[in-house]
Amino acid sequence: MTELGLFAVLFVALFIGWLLGRRRNHDVAPKELKKVPNDYFRGLNHLLNGQQSEAIDAFVDSLEVNSDTFDIHLTLGNLFRKKGEIQKAINIHQSLLARPDISPRDTRLVQLELASDFMSAGLLDRAERLLLNIASRKTEFQKEIFTLLVDLYEFEQSWGKAISIAHQLQLDFPNRRQAQRLAHFYCELAEEEAKKDQLTQAFQQYKAAIDVDVDCVRASIGLADLYILQKRFRDAIKELKSVADQDHEFLPIVIPKLRDCYQKVWSSGGYIKFLQEQLKVHPSATLIRALTEHYAHDDKEFAEQFIITQLRAHPTIKGFQELIDMQRADSHGHDQENLSVLYGLIEQLTSSKPKQRCRQCGFSGHQLHWQCPSCKSWGTVKPIHGLEGE
Asked: How many alpha carbons lie under 13 Å from residue 272 in its C-beta half-sphere?
């Protein structure tokens, strides 16, 4: 539905609400019932001229606040907030709260909307006080209250408070996405502790993240990084290999770390076996290039045939670039020069393409973000797969 269509629907709803409000009084004369406020016609004129904001202002002025029009005013307040006209939303919601006959349930409902207004306006302290006040009464809106509080503390990066409320929310209203979000809050705390060289506390936070979400890739990578700092490379290998079971799409991220750890323990056999196993079930350009690099140390011809075979089954620009690089090294003269030009062109192409994409909103970029900068979802930004990716 277009914005104009939405306003037209609201226009009809407002008219119906006005009629209902008039009919509440059984003593109203028929002639008086037909009288429509001037503000209503003013609003209709604005709507026909495409002046939606002015139209709604006029309709609001024409519509008396009562039990029959309560929901319409609530909807209007929400619409103003979504359009970025926060002060108008606040005014509408505060006028609803000022009604002497408003029920306790409706009061809490309006307070929730008002808290959302405050958050949109950046008045976080006021929003927090209002939400905590409602939450203390254990109302039927507890889930909505806790969700808003978690959003607020996440925005403030008050991870301790966010974890406390998110735990209660997960306890009362279990949800997979909420558990994933909570695990990332623990990871945020872990990274803060690691920056302060508080490695024990960082370990505890990462472990807590795994307890909340066993498939938290970020926590496994974080634990591996801590183990590497302590030169516990076998423990790091265990954590990095677990990523394959948690979410194989993140494997290209951990392969370089895994290779370095295996080199530290002089055990390339385990590394190659892991790559070969994963290639069978989750082929990617990074896996193919890693295996090609290993095979090339012993037999360049075998490595070249291997990558050609893999490119036929799993064509990627990265894999093609690796093949050109191998052939360039063995060529001479004009052939080498031509291959170098081709390699450079592909390098420019791949470097200009995004490497990560959010599975939730489609945001793409070169860096891996644990929280999508666009839609703010956690753990949805992953390496791009396909011809131009993995």
From this structure: 10
* 158 φ/ψ angles, rounded to the nearest 5 degrees: -90, 80
Please give the Cα distance from 184 to 213 (Å, whole number): 9
For residues 47, 52, 57, 59, the Cα torsion angle rounded to the nearest 10 degrees is 40
How far is Cα of residue 184 from the mean position of the Cα atoms in its chain? Answer: 11
pLDDT tens readout for residues 126-164? 999 999 988 887 778 889 999 999 999 999 999 999 999
Task: Give the SS3 label for residue 135.
Answer: helix
pTM of the complete model beyond 0.85: no
Contact in structure between 366 and 384 (CB atoms under 8 Å) = no
Residue 222 near residue 190, CB atoms below 8 Å:
yes
Strand pairing category for 381-383 and 364-365: unpaired
Q: What is the distance between the alpha carbons of residues 206 and 220, in angstroms, rounded to a whole number?
A: 8
Residue type, 83: K
Sign of the C-alpha dihedral computed for residues 18, 21, 23 and 29 taken in this order = negative
Task: Give Rg (Cα) of the chain.
Answer: 30
Cα gap 3→43, rounded to integer Å: 16
